[in-house]
Amino acid sequence: MIAIMAAATLVLAEPAVPSTYRDNDLVERGEAGIRFVSRIRDSVVLEFHDIRSRDDCPPLDVVVVHDTISFLAPDEQASVLAFLSDSVRAGGIVVVGDNEVLVADSGWQSVVRTVIWRA
Amino acid sequence: MVPNTADYVVGVYNPRGDIIPIVDLRRLLHLPAVEQTPRVIGNLIILELDELTLGVAVDRIDSVVGVPSAKIQSGHPLFADINLRFIGGVVECQGRLYIILDAERAFAVPEPTPTGAAALTVAAAASPGSVGTPATSPETELSVIREGLKTFAGFHVTEINQEWVRQRLPTWREERAAVECGIQIENGPDAEAFLTGFVSTNPDALWSNERAGMLAATLANSIRGEGENRALHGVNVGCGHATKHIRQLRRWPRRVRGDAFVSGRKTPI
Fold it and tell me: Do B218 and A118 touch (CB under 8 A)?
């Protein structure tokens, strides 16, 4: 949890940073390595919630759930899919694993290959 | 009946060009026979025991379950009616008690190969069989794989991933044949080997140029025309404790929101 909370202040070795992050001025070189620029660090707020509690959350623009649903029991999978249906705003996107698919007739539209889906 | 064979050999079968004997478990285990006129061989389970391959006629294939060897307990005298020397143990799984047949011992194959899981699970089913599908049909193989992945990797085959699992089966079959093993997933390393290639590319690294570009372009297209500085809300659904992490990207500058994550490709979506 601490690692997630500190994700915005993550320090990476240069080979681990794809060029797009540097080309678009999203990262800078610090004393310990590459880190996100301050406007990124200051813009990100991380919160923790139990997805099973289905607590109120704002309509979501992006959900990243790759390689996760497959390791949940079928009833938990159904719960997560219901959460996605309820919480992702119209036009919002869901990123699943490279080898996972959302069932097309459940209201999701494949946008990029089968990785990114739109509500 | 097949001449000059034990009375429990009730016929032969030709699954892939190789003639194999069919064994009636009822006769072998001295269980009451089911009268069938004319004799119809129902469901078959194909067993590959070292160099011996044979078909076992069963009343029906009730289900296929994978069980860790550690959960298997020794046979109990209560099962004496079912020739105890053929019983490899008993195991409770999903609220049911299963009797495990020791296939190597029952069919007298010398030097049985140790396995982590049961070679054959006999479910408590007793309805007369009808012409059915051999246990090596693709659907049965998928059932075997499904149980193994669930038991040893916590991986559940559903609509989310079953297409990948189906596509993985042929190569898995080849990989297992190369090491003279069946397709069963018998332990954690087997499950890990089967799932090779399933996990997304570089799951622990920053997203690649291509992937970050795809997401940025899709997202930019998704929120086009909305307020300049609207906060974006995202969730990263975690596994294990099923937590979610809401990322509120506040005061997101238009440049970053619209373009900065986009790689040079800017592929139309």
Answer: yes
Is A76 in the same domain as A110? yes
Question: Which ipTM was obtained for this model?
Answer: 0.82
Domain count, chain A: 2
User: Does any CB of chain B come closer than 8 Å to the CB of residue A38?
Assistant: no
Residue A65 and residue A29 share a domain:
no
CA distance A57 to chain B (A): 9
Neighbours of A33 (CB within 10 A): 14
Task: Indicate if A110 and A64 belong to the same structural domain.
Answer: yes
Q: Which chain B residue has its CA at the smallest distance from A111's CA?
A: B269
How close does chain B come to A95, measured CA to CA in Å? 8
Rounded to two decimals, the pTM is 0.57
d(CA A61, nearest CA chain B) in Å: 5
Asked if residue A54 belongs to a domain, the reply is no
Instruction: Residue B41: name the closest of B6, B12, B7 by CA.
Output: B12
Nearest CB among A43, A51, A111 relative to B218 is that of: A111
Taking the CA of residue A25 and the nearest CA in chain B, the distance in Å comes to 8
Instruction: Classify residue B217 by burial, with Cβ atoms within 10 Å: 0-12, 13-18, 19+.
Output: buried
Do the domain assignments include residue A50?
no
Do the domain assignments include residue A29? yes
Provide the domain limits for residue A105.
Answer: 60-118
Q: Does residue A51 fall inside a structural domain?
A: no
CB B66 within 8 A of CB B147: yes
pLDDT at A20 > cutoff 80: yes
Q: Which residues of chain B have pLDDT under 50?
A: 110-135, 239-269
What is the rounded distance in angstroms from the CA atom of residue A27 to the CA atom of residue A15?
A: 13
pLDDT bracket for residue A82 (50, 70, 90) = confident
Task: State residue B114's pLDDT score.
Answer: 39
Same domain, A34 and A65: no
Cβ contact, residue pair A4, B199, below 8 Å:
no
Nearest residue to A107 (alpha-carbon basis) of A97, A98, A117: A117
- Determine the pLDDT at residue B184: 87
Q: Which of B199, B233, B250 is the best residue to mutate to test the A interface, defined by the most A CB atoms within 10 Å of its own CB? A: B233
pLDDT of residue B38: 52
Q: Which of B153, B200, B261 sits opposite A66 (nearest CB)?
A: B200
Tokens of residue A90, six digits: 């119209």
